[in-house]
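Figure 2 data, in text form.
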Amino acid sequence: MPQYKAPLRDTRFLINEVLDYPGHYAQLPNGAEATPDVVDSILDHCAKFCEGVLAPLNQSGDKEGCTLADGNVSTPKGFKEAYDQFVEGGWQGLSHPEQYGGQGMPMSLGVFKAEMMGTANWSFNMYPGLSLGAMNTIMLHGTDEQRDAYMPPLTEGRWMGTMCLTEPQCGTDLGLIKTKAVPADNGTYRINGSKIWITGGEHDLSGNIIHLVLAKLPDAP
């Protein structure tokens, strides 16, 4: 059976010798906790999770895939248990603010986490990866009310999120989308359109799934 070995030696070389993360982190407002010992420990635990939990699930992911029965989507054998461990380890919120339940580590450290998890099992990593996209969008563009409502459950992994972008007539060229968002009198929007191929659009990993929908306002080009 193919095995995955996390590239810890290469990763540490890049972090310490090439990119000088310790020196960089020392100057960041949220970098005080990201000491070399803490970073090493995070990398070790991430490697252990990837090698021992995620990588072995590639086989069930390839052979079984997801199934649809009675309107419910089930992920391959072992995915739900792996996600529960992922949540327990605090991996979803590694680089997100502590006020929302995250660990507050620098985003650049999260890149190495994502690299290891994605290489160990890309099909699994797509689920939390799409949640990160939703989380970052809400963090950067959401209102305080939206951040308070959605960021804690997303950061803790109790909820997951998607990015509803692709439509039947376009995928990468998002300027061609036809979905419309028409403002309503109560401050909400009425969405009209079709989205397809939404990664993580339905599954059994989390208690709730929120969908961020890309749509054009009436005056958009």
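Caption note: The two ends are 52 Å apart (CA to CA).
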